[in-house]
Design a protein that fits this description.
By secondary structure, the chain is an alpha/beta fold. Helix content is about 35%, strand content about 15%. The radius of gyration is 19 Å and the shape is globular. It starts with a helix and ends with a helix.
């Protein structure tokens, strides 16, 4: 019976490919399998699997060890435990994100989940996987939450529980586009609420793009106030650009001290 079902599935997939030939995730070129892209474009993507900040995951090619903290996390440690992203958000990866976010294109979700898991293996440790929620009015307008699609794909890949309703956006916030880091933090402060039991549990928050991390921190704060033991974050892509900071002249401590481990 199982073998027969598998044959029927392969036959259905073959017929679907004949009617709707699979197209590259980054071009209109035809590819062998759904949710893939040409080898040369894949090699051009900037995967963030190399050395980085132990806390926020910001790439640090000059890092000398696994406990390195970036200047931003030394100056002001984030409230989440760890954050990682699969890709640098640049001219090549941008169409991947926008076709998911605004085009509703889902055929890359399995690949995206694999990429995010490679960047953030701590997903396996989570008690639950949660998406960054949209406000109800925006969800109704768009018709879907791309972060929820990513979170569900990651949950399917790892067999971890997926809970799209536990965290909710109680206040409609303006778009973060064009806001400064401080403005982004103010914009989402207090915008999220927890609608269920979280005490003592560990969570992984999923979003499509991490820019300054303000939204992820606001979500994390809501979960920690409700009693969550730990919150980690993962995004499909993140903005990678130099940040000028007034780093304190007195160090805050070692990575272990800042990390509270």
């Amino acid at each position: 019976m199982i073998a027969r079902s598998q044959r029927l599935y392969r036959l259905g997939t073959t017929l679907a490919d004949l009617i709707w030939p699979p197209r590259s995730l980054l071009s209109d070129a035809r590819v062998d399998r759904l949710g893939t892209l040409e080898a040369d474009l894949w090699r051009g993507l900037d995967f963030l699997y190399g050395p980085g900040c132990i806390r926020c995951g910001f790439p640090l090619p000059e890092a000398t060890g696994p406990e390195t903290l970036c200047p931003a996390c030394i100056a002001q440690p984030p409230v989440y435990h760890r954050a990682r992203a699969a890709l640098a958000y640049d001219d090549l990866s941008k169409p991947l994100v926008l076709s998911l976010k605004h085009g509703g294109r889902k055929d890359g979700l399995r690949a995206f989940a694999n990429w995010m898991l490679e960047a953030a293996p701590f997903v396996w440790e989570a008690n639950q996987i949660l998406p960054v929620p949209l406000h109800g009015s925006r969800l109704w307008q768009r018709g879907y939450n791309q972060a929820a699609w990513l979170a569900q794909a990651l949950a399917n890949r790892t067999a971890r529980p997926y809970n799209p309703l536990l965290l909710q956006r109680k206040r409609k916030t303006p778009s973060q586009n064009g806001l400064s880091a401080r403005g982004r933090k103010r914009n989402v402060a207090g915008a999220f609420q927890v609608m269920g039991h979280v005490r003592g549990q560990s969570f992984v928050l999923v979003d499509d793009v991490m820019t300054t991390g303000a939204t992820l921190e606001a979500c994390t704060s809501a979960l920690l106030r409700a009693g969550a033991a730990r919150v980690d974050c993962v995004a499909l892509a993140r903005v990678v650009r130099p940040t000028k900071l007034d780093v304190p002249t007195e160090p805050l401590g070692t990575a272990e001290e800042v990390f509270n481990v």
